[in-house]
Design goal:
Layout (H helix, E strand, L loop, with lengths): L2 H12 L17 E7 L2 E7 L9 H14 L4 E7 L5 H4 L14 E5 L7 H13 L5 E5 L7 H4 L15 E2 L1 E3 L2 E5 L14 H13 L1 E2 L5 E5 L6 H9 L4 E6 L3 H16 L4 E12 L6 E2 L6 H8 L4 E7 L1 H8 L10 H20 L4
Helix pairs in contact: 1-2, 4-11, 6-7
Length: 354
């Protein structure tokens, strides 16, 4: 299929659709923000400009109709996003409720990038699933999604359910959704903040998660608007902070922790990743970045230290190959993840969350 020709045909066809309360079509007035074609799937990104998504049900139906008239074999996914946040609703919680079936939403965050938060997220998710819990992962890093590749599902595309929602991709006993599953991983996302918020909210509300004991959200680094949006829009059971031992990383981790406290999100605890280098040849421990900083920080802040994870070559290799190390019977490494899993389970049980 000639994607360039197909995209041009789609734009021309969708000019037949008038926007709500307007005589202008959705192409000319920029409601159709972007068309992204990946293999056998087309993604139509609609900018609903702060209006209720319900107003766009008819437009979505017409979009699908016109695309199918051009190519009736292609899968169609429509993402509603907004470039204009409604101030009345953005400043307070919208019922602060989660989609039906999601018992717990847990945010896994870091004050800065490069601390291994995504690796921790998927290994923790699989470890929890091995305990018999129903677990999902939402990759909330819209600009730099990494879960599809780390889970080995980067070549898969989600289908649409009968209810019009997006189906998750399942691997290793967990369910996953990421913008990286909808748009080619090499394609940059050039969206302003409000549009990212809209897409992220849709990735939670308009996805068939099914019944989950917990949804682990792999957050983008920092303490930005996305963190506040999730805290305001949904009921968050708790947050986990991932850091490395260096002082500079711990300073940023404290910022993230204090931000969650300000929005009344419970802190499950702190994880020290890359805590020490475990030599694969001699099994000796080398504290390259220092050691124990996260534990000391947790003690000073009277928070729980969930555990440490070593810097180990095999963890990196397995992650790059889409094979989380927790799936391998590597007791030397897995024991660290199992300890953290114990602590997370303990927190949820003490709070009657599972």
């Amino acid at each position: 299929m000639d994607n360039t020709k197909f995209k041009k045909q789609v734009y021309e066809a969708l000019k037949n659709i008038k926007d709500i309360n307007s005589d202008t079509n959705i192409v000319d007035n920029k409601t159709l923000h972007e068309v992204v074609i990946d293999d056998n799937q087309i993604n139509l990104i609609l900018n609903i400009k702060g209006n209720s998504p319900n107003y766009y049900n008819k437009i979505q139906e017409l979009c699908k109709k016109y695309v199918k008239e051009i190519n009736n074999k292609i899968s169609i996914n429509i993402i509603l996003t907004s470039d204009n946040i409604n101030k009345k609703t953005s400043s307070k919680m919208e019922n602060n409720s989660n989609p039906v079936g999601l018992k717990n939403i847990i945010l896994i965050a870091s004050g800065k990038g490069g601390v291994g938060k995504s690796t921790v997220t998927n290994n923790l998710a699989i470890s929890l699933a091995k305990r018999g819990l129903k677990v999902g992962i939402l990759d909330a890093d819209i600009y730099g999604p990494s879960q599809p590749r780390m889970l080995g599902i980067n070549n898969e595309k989600p289908s649409s359910g009968k209810n019009g929602k997006i189906n998750t991709i399942e691997k290793y006993g967990i369910r996953c959704m990421s913008i990286g599953l909808l748009i080619d991983e090499k394609r940059p996302i050039v969206w302003r903040g409000p549009m990212v918020h809209g897409a992220l909210e849709q990735l939670i509300k308009d996805v068939n998660w099914g019944e989950l004991d917990m949804l682990l959200v792999d957050m983008p680094p920092g303490t930005g608007d996305i963190h506040l949006t999730l805290s305001q829009k949904f009921f968050i059971s708790g947050a986990i902070i991932v850091s490395t031992p260096q002082d500079i990383a711990l300073i940023d981790a404290q910022k993230g922790l204090n931000m969650f406290k300000k929005v009344n999100v419970p802190i499950i605890g702190i994880i020290e990743n890359m805590s020490f280098f475990l030599c694969p040849n001699c099994n000796e421990r080398h504290e390259i970045f220092g050691n124990g900083g996260a534990k000391e920080t947790a003690n000073n802040l009277k928070e729980t230290f969930l555990g440490e994870i070593p810097l180990y070559t095999e963890i990196r290799i397995k992650s790059d190959n889409g094979e989380p190390i927790i799936e391998k019977n590597n007791d030397q490494i897995n024991k660290y993840f199992f300890k953290i899993t114990d602590e997370v389970e303990k927190f949820l049980k003490e709070n009657s969350a599972i």
